[in-house]
Specification:
The complex is a heterodimer of chains A (about 475) and B (about 350). Chain A is of the alpha+beta class and about 475 residues long. Chain A has nine helices and 18 strands. Classes of the chains: A alpha+beta (about 475), B alpha/beta (about 350).
């Protein structure tokens, strides 16, 4: 009996997925639930288990192809060798060659590729939104309007995301945009003074570059690659120099993975919408380091999970976020959304990219709870077992360039947050205390924040709270 | 429905208001009188004066050579008329009920429609007959078969809604050198009346008429549903929704210019027709708007049409099957707040 293998739906807003790797060849035997292929979607990468035991008969969708969910990507012959009766045996592990390398990757600097969904929020007042330009249209951020409204928005230089929609389901109608323009929301006067390159770069799809002249030595540059999904070239893949100038000598072309593309898009979008400001503080971690050194063996024995510095930083960040709620926020038009949950996104470096799983309700957890949550998320990130909801709804994030030896890093904000902490390396340094030189475990901690929402005073007070919490740590860990 | 105040011709024309039927009869009478080449051919058009009495008195006036009763064969009527037209006559063919026009489908689509293209032999014939439902005529006497022919290049298709237009367009059809199909909605025959000009006049083929001005949305309709559309517009005017109602009048060729001008103004379009939904003119109009006015649309093109079934016998079922004023009001409201 032939059993269809379909592209699964990995989360509610996911409509397509890319097959990144087949772990079996046609003719290979598979057990039920044995990993069969790997996919990459906008939200997560995952291994997809076999729907049935049998023999992989046919691969219909090859590696690198993006298809809608429920598309049949292959067929299993369930009547194949010994597959008639369900087996009691545990599923065999994936072949070693196919599985991602098991070496534990460490959290890395940079912000996450998670999409920034636009929650239904109270509409901002039109007049106050002047001065913004259209952000790049993104999935999950789609504004419902109409061909007419989009045309009018373009003609009048109106950012549709700032226009309150009163049509069915919040759609921006002709009347809405007319009212908005009448209220002074149009940017058409100022927009005209902006150089076309700047004005259009986020509102128009990148044109496919004209065929470059033939290179003298090598053959002509290959066809400009298209992003794996979405169809339109994203501005993140625009080149600053003509394409033919990039191809010289010997080279190898490596197509970006879907995850890599999403990271690129997200990074550029974040830098585009958020004016980043950076502050760095030096924190004395001696007390925490001592506590951890004393407790870590017992901690691991008792709870069967490793104790790292990370939960201390999470708890300290929570203290700062509680004291300064504007750090735990998102910006929607001219409304600041102050989140009541404190959900901390933790950047996890992977051999094939980066993902930011989220510790939900971090303020309700103790050191053990955070550490367990963190280790579990990081482990499942590396084995591609994260669920889409586990990389969503962060309200603040932390990344750890120090683990790779960085003195400090200046990370890009993970949207839709307004701040991200970057942790530097913890090392012993001579410091002056009461006019004497002492050896202390020191750490540079940086904060990148969105100056639209957060000013320097708040940012520094927040950092001070984090510093105080860590330097005067008094919560037991065992 | 019998609101007769919509036609631009109502005011200023002397004389008693006449029915749609009377307007048809006047048009045929005047054209036969004007041009000896015009003849009438059909079932019971002579002695009996037509099933709906549209040709009453014509036999007495013009004689049996010009008012010709035929056997029950629509194919023969059209075929004969086509031959007559090649020999210089300008026949008007009556289908006793327009439903039966499909019996002459081959004659119309393969010969009449193609003659001009293939061997430079235009067939200046008019095929007219009572169409449409709402009078409990059942599945064989209520049809709206216009779209079979709108899909046939080489024909012209007219479907008027007022006595003034019926007369003016029928006279224009008789004078046109192309084959013209002329649909007369039988619900309107005795229900709408208006005073007509005393002098000779025609209404141009291929021109729609703006029956009511509005700015919030446009209803495109024709024939009986044009009147329901006007009623709906009236009702919604009281709720602050100003609807522009356009009477298409001619379906082939379609007056795209008038349609596009209105869409540019109102940005929302509802097409109302009594024909069944799938393959109706509304779909064609939606496609034209997508191609030529996409940037003017502030909402999807909505349709109010009959259901995709034969016209039911049962009066309650027929009521359910047909569009009506309330269905138009509901769709227009939904579109207005889309």
């Amino acid at each position: 009996m032939a059993v269809d293998i379909v592209m699964p739906q990995m989360g509610e807003s996911i409509f397509e997925g890319t097959i990144t790797k087949w772990l079996k060849k046609p003719g290979d035997k598979v057990e039920r639930d044995e990993p069969l292929f790997e996919i990459s979607t906008d939200k997560v990468d995952a291994e997809i288990p076999s729907p049935s035991a049998g023999v992989l008969k046919e691969i219909k969708v090859g590696e690198g192809k993006t298809v809608p969910i429920q598309t049949v990507v292959g067929v299993i012959d369930a009547a194949g060798d010994g597959a008639g009766a369900p087996k009691a045996a545990a599923p065999a592990p994936a072949p070693a060659k196919a599985a991602p390398p098991a070496a534990p990757a460490k959290p890395a600097v940079a912000a996450p590729p998670s999409a920034a969904p636009r929650p239904a929020a109270p509409a901002p007042k039109p007049a106050a939104a002047a001065g913004t330009t259209s952000a790049p249209a993104k999935e999950g951020q789609r504004i419902h309007s109409s061909p007419l409204v989009r045309r009018m928005a373009k003609e009048h230089g109106v950012d549709l995301s700032a226009v309150p929609g009163t049509g069915a389901g919040g759609r921006v109608s002709k009347q809405d945009i007319e009212a908005y323009i009448a209220a002074g929301g149009s940017l058409v006067e100022t927009e005209k003074e902006i150089e076309p390159a700047e004005a259009d770069v986020y509102t128009q799809p990148v044109a496919t570059p004209a065929a470059p002249p033939p290179a003298p030595r090598a053959s002509a540059p290959p066809q400009a690659p298209a992003p794996s999904s979405g169809g339109q070239a994203h501005v993140a893949f625009e080149s600053a120099v003509p394409r033919e100038k990039m191809y010289f000598g010997n080279y190898e072309l490596q197509p970006m993975s879907v995850m890599r593309q999403r990271i690129a898009e997200h990074m550029l979008a974040s830098k585009h919408v958020s004016p980043h400001v950076y502050s760095v503080d030096e924190i004395d971690m001696t007390k925490v380091a001592g506590l951890r050194a004393k407790a870590k063996d017992e901690f691991e024995k008792r709870y069967e999970t490793k104790l790292t510095f990370m939960p201390f930083f999470v708890k300290a960040a929570v203290a700062g976020l509680r004291a300064f709620p504007t750090m735990n926020a998102s910006l929607d038009g001219t409304n600041v959304i102050l989140h009541k949950e404190i959900n901390i996104g933790m950047a996890v470096a992977l051999d094939w990219g980066l993902i930011v799983p989220v510790i939900k309700n971090a303020d309700e957890k103790n050191i053990l709870g955070i550490q367990r949550n963190l280790n579990d998320l990081a482990e499942r990130a590396r084995t591609k077992k994260l669920k889409p909801e586990e990389v969503q709804e962060s309200t603040f994030s932390i990344t750890n360039p120090g683990v790779f030896g960085g003195l400090f890093g200046l990370p890009v904000i993970s949207q839709p947050n307004v701040g991200i902490l970057g942790l530097g390396m913890i090392e012993k340094r001579p410091v002056v205390i009461n006019d004497s030189i002492a050896i202390r475990s020191m750490c540079y901690v940086s904060l990148s924040y969105d100056h639209r929402v957060v000013d320097g005073a708040i940012a520094h007070k927040f950092m001070h709270t984090v510093k105080e919490a860590l330097e005067n740590w008094n919560e037991p860990v065992l | 429905m019998a609101n007769t105040s919509h036609s631009p011709a109502t005011n200023g024309h002397a004389g008693a208001p006449v029915t749609f039927l009377e307007a048809i009869k006047q048009a045929m009478f005047e054209e036969m009188q004007r041009d000896p080449a015009v003849v009438l051919i059909g079932e019971d058009v002579g002695v009996y004066g037509g099933a709906f009495k549209t040709s009453e008195g014509l036999l007495q006036k013009f004689g049996w050579e010009r008012v010709i009763d035929t056997p029950i064969s629509e194919s023969a009527i059209i075929g004969a008329a086509c031959g007559m037209s090649y020999l210089g006559l300008r026949p008007i063919c009556e289908m006793q009920f327009i439903d039966f026009i499909v019996c002459a489908f081959n004659q119309l689509t393969n010969f009449v429609a193609k003659g001009h293209y293939l061997w430079n032999a235009p067939a200046p014939i008019v095929v007219r007959g009572p169409s449409g439902g709402g009078v409990h005529g059942g599945p064989f006497h209520s049809a709206n078969p216009e779209m079979y022919f709108v899909h046939t290049p080489g024909l012209k298709v007219i479907y008027p809604s007022t006595p003034y237009d019926a007369k003016g367009l029928l006279k224009a059809a008789v004078r046109d050198n192309n084959p013209v199909l002329f649909f007369e909605h039988k619900y309107l025959y005795r229900r709408v009346k208006e005073a007509l000009p005393a002098e000779d006049y025609t209404v141009p083929i291929g021109k729609a008429a703006v029956r009511r001005e509005g700015k919030h949305l446009t209803i495109l309709s024709y024939a009986a549903m044009m009147h329901n559309s006007l009623e709906a517009a009236e009702e919604l005017a009281n709720q602050g929704i100003e609807i522009e109602v356009i009477d298409l009048r001619t379906l082939l060729p379609l007056d795209e210019e008038t349609i596009l001008r209105s869409v540019k103004k109102t940005n929302r379009v509802l097409v109302v027709h009594e024909d069944t939904r799938t393959g109706g003119i509304a779909g064609e109009i939606a496609a034209i708007l997508c191609e030529k006015a996409f940037g003017d649309l502030d909402g999807p093109v909505f349709r109010v049409t009959a259901l995709d079934t034969p016209v039911p016998y049962s009066p309650p079922l027929e009521e359910h099957f047909l569009p009506n004023t309330q269905k138009i009001v509901a769709a227009a409201k939904q579109l207005a707040k889309y």
